[in-house]
């Protein structure tokens, strides 16, 4: 009971969190927890691993990062939509994420770069969304449940069979053991980056036609990795995830980049590791980013594990063990390299200051650059771009 002298709440903040009578979307976790809110983006049902990203900017880049295949992304930053969406900020042709969860209704765009409204864009891409959720409570539930499975259902009529949605969530197998790289990889033949309709038509600077030739094995590469390689002076060719070492060698690369990508690295290993091992054997300079770093570690004899808490955000401090320098990085991973599994000639060179997990490795006597972070993701905003130049210097040395 309130005290008789308690003043009436005056501010808007004192209103109940979700006063809307009809929930037009729900998120149901496998354990039966239900979050109600307002639907946005596409109507329909989407199932996947529920994760959260703490970045304050870059929602379009996050939603179009192919590494999010099979996932529902909770944005802990409340204002999503304020800069709209535009063709230059796509990290892939289309989003691979399953859906998204927001605190506030989608904010209308107010930015000179905005080409489209976020809500309409999400609808057009079939991304099922939910707003009006207490994302702090959901984030805590995700942390407690170690990446739970969930189902988002968006139906303007507000009719939901919660038991059925929970059953769908419970039946989803989870990301552990799932190979998703092939599903998002470049299909078909090797493609030059920076020439032709794929990139120039979008207004990206053309890649140089000379310079070191870098082959990117596309396990779900973000376009900004390709742009950064081109910026650093490389001629770039993108090949499908299951390309053999012989087919890569036939392209006569000066170095090979193993890209980021979705799913469980151990499930992708059966076709990726033989290729990477053969490349290591030839002495080819290799640069592994995120999933690529995990696959490189597997190829060197290590193991990967599913993390209790994934890392997704733009302010993840990483310490270099040799120099003591700390970089603020962008991260997006739910698996990590097990440091105890690495053979004696492979050293951990960088660790996360959040949980001590492996952030970079070095292999004795080999031209290998291998990082868990996303150096192309502009966290600082340019702190990590130098890694691309470092790789090209390694290629030329
Ligand atoms: N961004 C990535 O490449 C992610 C790698 C891997 N799918 C993970 O979740 O750990």
Please give the structural blueprint.
Elements: E1 25-29, E2 34-41, E3 44-53, H1 59-64, E4 71-75, E5 99-101, H2 118-124, E6 128-131, H3 135-145, E7 149-154, H4 162-171, H5 181-184, E8 191-193, E9 213-218, H6 223-231, E10 235-240, H7 245-250, E11 255-258, H8 265-282, E12 286-289, H9 291-299, E13 303-320, E14 326-338, E15 346-352, E16 358-363, E17 368-371, H10 386-396
Parallel strand pairs: 3-4, 4-5, 5-6, 9-10, 9-11, 11-12, 12-17
Antiparallel strand pairs: 1-2, 1-7, 2-6, 3-7, 8-10, 13-14, 13-15, 15-16, 16-17
The structure holds glutamine.
Keywords: Amino-acid biosynthesis, Arginine biosynthesis, ATP-binding, Glutamine amidotransferase, Ligase, Nucleotide-binding, Pyrimidine biosynthesis
GO molecular function, one term: ATP binding
EC number: 6.3.5.5
Explain what this protein looks like in three dimensions.
This protein has 397 residues and is α/β, with parallel strands linked by helices. It has two domains: 15-171, Carbamoyl-phosphate synthase small subunit, N-terminal domain (Glucose Oxidase, domain 1, 3-Layer(bba) Sandwich); 181-396, 3-Layer(aba) Sandwich (Rossmann fold). Helix content is 23%, strand content 28%. It contains ten helices and 17 strands. The chain has a ten-stranded mixed β-sheet, sandwiched between helices. Strands 1-2-6-5-4-3-7 form a seven-stranded mixed barrel. Helix 8 packs across helix 9 (291-299). The chain binds glutamine. Glutamine binds at residues 67, 260-263, 290-291, 332-335. L-glutamine binds at residues 67, 261, 263, 291, 294, 332, 334-335. Residues 1-212 are annotated as: CPSase.
């Amino acid at each position: 009971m309130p005290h008789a002298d308690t003043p009436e709440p005056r501010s808007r903040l004192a209103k109940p969190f979700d006063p809307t009578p009809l929930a037009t979307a729900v998120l149901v976790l496998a354990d039966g927890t239900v979050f109600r809110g307002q639907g946005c983006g596409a109507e329909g049902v989407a199932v996947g691993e529920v994760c959260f990203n703490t970045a304050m900017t870059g929602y379009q880049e996050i939603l179009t990062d192919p590494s999010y295949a099979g996932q529902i992304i909770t944005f802990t930053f409340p204002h999503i939509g304020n800069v709209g969406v535009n063709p230059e900020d796509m990290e892939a042709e289309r989003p691979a994420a399953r859906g998204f969860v927001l605190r506030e209704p989608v904010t209308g765009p107010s930015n000179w770069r905005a080409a489209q409204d976020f809500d309409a864009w999400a609808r057009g891409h079939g991304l099922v969304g939910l707003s009006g959720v207490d994302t702090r409570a959901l984030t805590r539930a995700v942390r407690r449940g170690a990446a739970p499975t969930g189902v988002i259902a968006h139906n303007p009529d507000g009719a939901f069979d919660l038991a059925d949605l929970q059953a769908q969530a419970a039946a989803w197998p989870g990301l552990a053991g799932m190979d998703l790289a092939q599903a998002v990889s470049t299909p078909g033949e090797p493609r030059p980056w920076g020439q032709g309709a794929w990139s120039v038509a979008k207004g990206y600077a053309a890649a140089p036609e000379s310079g070191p030739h870098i082959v990117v094995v596309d396990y779900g590469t973000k376009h900004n990795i390709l742009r950064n390689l081109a910026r650093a002076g490389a001629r770039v060719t993108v090949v499908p995830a299951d390309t053999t070492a012989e087919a890569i060698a036939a392209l006569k690369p000066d170095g090979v980049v193993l890209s980021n990508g979705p799913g469980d690295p151990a499930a992708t290993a059966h076709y990726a590791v033989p290729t990477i091992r053969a490349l290591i054997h030839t002495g080819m300079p290799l640069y592994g980013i995120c999933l690529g770093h995990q696959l490189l570690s597997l190829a060197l004899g290590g193991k990967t594990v599913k993390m209790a808490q994934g890392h997704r955000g733009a302010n993840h401090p990483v310490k270099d063990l040799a120099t003591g320098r700390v970089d603020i990085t962008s991260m997006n991973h739910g698996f990590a390299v097990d440091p105890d599994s690495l053979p004696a000639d492979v050293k951990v060179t960088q660790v996360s200051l959040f949980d001590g997990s492996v952030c970079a490795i070095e292999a004795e006597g080999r031209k290998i650059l291998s990082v868990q972070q996303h150096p192309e993701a502009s966290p600082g905003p340019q702190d990590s771009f130098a890694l691309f130049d470092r790789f090209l210097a390694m290629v030329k040395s």
